[in-house]
Amino acid sequence: MQIRNLPSFWRNGYDPVEEIDLEDLHADGRRRVRENLAAREYDLRQSWLTGLMRAIRAVDYLDESQLPYSSKNAAYYTPLAEYVRRREFGRTLRHPEILVPLVLSGVLEAVSCLSTVAAPLLMQRVLQEPSDPGHLLALFGVSLVATMAGRSKDQICRVLAVRVSSILQLALFRKCLRFSGRTTCTEGRLVSCSTTDMMLLRNYILKMHDIWSSPLQLILIILLVLRLLGLSALLGYFVMAFLLLSQTQANAKVASALEKYLGYDERRITILSQAFQRIKGIKLMLLESIIMKKIAAIRELQLVALTRRLRLVFCFFISINQMIPGLTALVSFISYWAGQHALDARVIFPALTLFELSHGPASKLSLAVTRQFSILPSVFRVRDILRQEEVDEQSSGDPGDIAISLDKATISYPGLANNAETTDEATAFLLDALTLKIPRRRLTCIYGHSGAGKSTMIKGIVGECVAQPPSSVKVYGSCALCRQDPWIMQGTVRDNILLGKPYEELRYRQVLRDCCLEADLTTFPGGDQALVAGNGATLSGGQRARISLARAVYSQAEIIVLDDPLSAVDARVAQCLWNDCIRKLSQTAVVVTHQLDLLPQCDHILVLDKGVIIAQGSPGQVLKHPFFNGSTLLDAPKELSPPIKDEAQSVAPAPNIVNSNAIALGKEVRVRGSVDRGLYGVYLRHSGGYPYIAALSAIFCLTVGTRIIGNIWLAWWVRDALHWAQHHYMSGYIGVMLSQAVFVALVGVYLVAGSVQASRRIHEGVLAQLFNTDMDFFDQQPLGRIINRLSVDIEGIDFRLINAADGLLLAASSLLASTIVLAMSSLYLILALLPIGYMTSRIQLLYGVSAREVRRLCSVLDSPVLAVINEAMGARASIQAYSAIELFEERHRAVLSKAMAGISVRYALETWVTVRVELVSVLLLGATCVLCGLGLLNAVQAGLTLSLSITIAKHLDAFLWSLINLDVEMNSMERLNQYLMLPTPETNSSSIGREIAPSWPESGSVVFSGVEVTYPQASQPSLHGFDLIIPAGAKVGIVGRSGSGKSTIIAALTGLVPLTAGTIRIDDVDLATVSLRQRRRSVHVLAQDAVLFDGTLRENLDPSRRSKDADMLGALSAVAWHQLMDQFDGVDRRSVLDQHILAGGTNLSAGQAQLVALARAVLARPRILVLDEATANVDQSTDEIIQRILQQSFRDNTVLCVAHRATSVAWMDCVITLADGRKVG
């Protein structure tokens, strides 16, 4: 059967219709199921792990290459992920690889339930006829069957959890690659869904059968209790039902708290991602404390939601669940005794075992209901992402003479259009009713002043901005996009240029020559195989621009869209790129430019003004338009040097250490060996220190004591060991049960308080270290790696550590109490416990080392997954324009396969250890049966021993599981502690800084004396003996080719890089003796890319909120605010400071964003102003405005200007030229 009749939302242009043979897919699924069974994927023994575990234990390390993974696994699930992306969930569930394990695990769960319930029934037979070997053998047999069936079900569910998680993550990523401009999904939400939500979903699948098996098991146990105690037991179960129903309303509160936690987590991760993407600007503007306060405020709200959830779970639920078996048994026994029935061992101990067993399903039922509520927020979040609109397919095969057409196109930015209720209509829709046609195989230039809408139109063409109905935007042919802010993915230079296209050496070499990259590659260790960091953080601006251009040219797309491709390079390189590359393109080329001198060389020109096309046509027609005021283009920007020769080799950038750094991406650190016990001390100190430990230990001892008393109280009651009246025994038992509940609740209270306190302090400490470490750290760390620790590992100390700690304390108290009572009942059992304890410890040791190393590897393998997600979300428009979706899907499948392989091994290890530990417990039961058969135990001893032998298996399993799990989950603390130990030279330098007057610097003189700068891991200095004297109030221009060291001067002045030799003095004060905060406060840097954050205009002008509105409006007026008012026409000027600006200023033009940054500089009133290519991205008129403002507003200030344009340095007092890190003119 062929799938052709797709849902309507799929047919309406979301993706090309794919023909998938459903019968072949399901036949393949059935084949895969048979292969999995043959390969023993569901094998309960998991014996293949033993060799791997011994190898891990021998070296205390697990290498990625040892994982049994295949990228084909994730590739196989792609069709199922496609069903999920289309929201065709029924087809996914019916697939054999989902349906078969779902049904099989259900059958095994039923077998395990029946066997578990049968054990108390057989115990009663054993107590009635202790010498009958058949009953003893049957009791041992059903216990063995319960263990094997239950653990087989667990392994199948673990395999299923990995499959479903893989399918959903593939579907979410495939969806994000196809998001339209209208999407409201943030990067933080996608990261949160791929980490926390997937973890919650896997945990849900592991226990999904509890929702029906627990009630079934509970009903069977109730029937057995009724058989023993009659109708008097119903009263006890009414109490149980009441206690369980009391948790229903609390479950809704748990879900609500979790939903709020996840929402705040999404906001926190989004802000963190934006902050670390702009960390250089944050450091230069001294915004670290402001960003940290903003994150801390969100984190505090998140911790409030976390505290509410943890208190409900660990104080309310667990304490009630601990009371359930005792109170149920007590009320039932009182009712039974009140009915004139004798309480003897043959009745009490089988019933007690049943009541203890009922605690398990009752607790599981409570947790299952809680999980049903808790998983809903995650399901809704995944559903919301899958409901996001996908990009319309705009390309067609029309061979006409038109390459791009817009008909009445109304284009807006998604962040504004999606929040129209809080945004003025004029703000949301920036281009209205555009109609144009761009001819095929012609060079078309789009020209206009800053804010005219050029970049917005380009983004509308490629789908990054929203085209509102009934707009028509048609792109007839494949498209390549070269953005104004070049996108560079993490990988080699060649990978960035090819972007999945086949490598053709001749064409590739020609592209390198045309884009002036050959000389750059000679300075890269490894040439074009040199690794570059994500977003090109370790490349110069010119190198990033040329790599982006080379990618567009190599793609051989029918339409190449270039958004101001020459702004980041100097005039010589720009002329080379224009003459030898752009003008020679045979395809349709659309170039956004600010350079008037390029217009006469184009075939077609579009002129935009205030979002309206005012002229279009040939250069001869357009340049006569009144817009140009009859100018003869003599005002066009002049070159800084004569035209260069045609040979691309002559454009040779100076060797720059940044190039060497490009391949020095740091490898993620993994700790080897056992977990440092000092980490527990670090965590406990953050939790509250010695008073906290003492209080928790005291409560734990009281809990153990009450459990011991509770276990032997009924034996005293039956034997009347204390010679008390019956009501005294009843009152004492009630007191013991209530004491247990109180102490368990107190344990929860202290655990929650300590855990939340530790989470708060650790998060604050990690952020403080990250924001105060040097830039070299961020240059060598992919963003996904940092976000992984601030999302997955923070979630680990928020949830998983307290789960492990609470489980360990409860399991330890139960195991200790049961073991003491078991030993008291018979000295013979002490001998049986010794070999069993030895075997258990050996299993624990072997498992513990392997589980720890696998968990460490899983944490490392998560980072590449998040790195790919972050990269894809940031470059979605470029990926769609280049049709590189399949390339990124393949990259995601590769890293996801490794991550899922790690989780699969971790789950297999859990199966391996639980099977063996429970088999040891079954052996303990067998030893008890032997002692009963030999008549070495009396009725009371036999009843108590058999009861505890059955329950001790659960306690032993829970204890060992929690003990190892705590050690494994300390991996999150281990990884975060690495960030807590980061070197912080930026804060350390403040301790040696001498006292400086608040008015420093008063004059603003700057002296460079023999300055030499060598970047970390570099072999050559980037600055060689640089000397420069800048008098107070002087205006100095710095020019030079890309890589000549211009940016290094600014980095050295602001302390972003340390000096290898020499000194820098401001007002005769050596900057080495001044704290970095004072140093950066004295120097204000206006960079090429304005640093703007998601927030209001007021927040961007004055992040510290120290200025008055009147001052901010005055600063806007000083920078020609009317240039921005076109963006906010119709907005009340008094409330214009409240207008929203998107992260990075994406809803502003480059010129408008730069004017906002300039207004911020005017507001700051610095004595020293540094311009780092500040006008490279703006048009000539805006450049003239900025230059005029600089001359007027900073007349008495010291100005240091790095520029490529002659107009930018024409008014300087002097201009110096750099080459190879030296001053040459």
The helix fraction, in percent, is 55-70%
- CATH-level-4 superfamily name of the largest domain: ABC transporter type 1, transmembrane domain
Q: How confident overall, as mean pLDDT?
A: 79
Strand order of the largest sheet: 6-9-10-3-11-12
Ranges where pLDDT stays below 50 over 5 or more residues in a row are: 1-23, 417-429, 632-664
The total count of helices amounts to 43
Number of strands: 24
Instruction: Briefly note the structural class of the backbone.
Output: alpha/beta
Please give the structural blueprint.
Blueprint: H1 8-11, H2 22-38, H3 48-59, H4 71-76, H5 78-85, H6 89-93, H7 96-128, H8 133-176, H9 187-206, H10 210-229, H11 232-245, H12 248-277, H13 279-284, H14 288-338, H15 345-386, E1 402-412, H16 414-417, H17 425-428, E2 429-439, E3 443-447, H18 454-462, E4 466-468, E5 472-475, E6 479-482, E7 491-492, H19 493-498, H20 505-514, H21 518-523, E8 531-532, H22 541-554, E9 559-563, H23 571-582, E10 588-592, E11 604-609, E12 612-617, H24 619-622, H25 657-661, H26 677-687, H27 689-719, H28 726-772, H29 775-780, H30 783-825, H31 828-874, H32 876-881, H33 885-933, H34 939-980, H35 985-992, E13 1006-1013, E14 1023-1030, E15 1035-1040, H36 1046-1054, E16 1061-1066, E17 1069-1070, H37 1076-1082, E18 1083-1086, E19 1095-1096, H38 1097-1101, H39 1109-1118, H40 1122-1125, E20 1140-1141, H41 1150-1164, E21 1168-1172, H42 1180-1193, E22 1198-1202, H43 1206-1209, E23 1214-1219, E24 1222-1223
Parallel strand pairs: 3-10, 3-11, 6-9, 9-10, 15-22, 15-23, 18-21, 21-22
Antiparallel strand pairs: 1-2, 1-4, 1-5, 7-8, 11-12, 13-14, 13-16, 16-17, 19-20, 23-24
Helix pairs in contact: 3-31, 5-8, 7-8, 7-10, 7-15, 7-34, 8-9, 8-33, 9-12, 9-15, 9-31, 10-11, 10-15, 11-14, 12-14, 12-15, 12-30, 14-15, 14-28, 15-34, 26-27, 26-28, 27-28, 27-30, 28-30, 28-34, 30-31, 30-34, 31-33, 31-34, 33-34, 39-41, 41-42
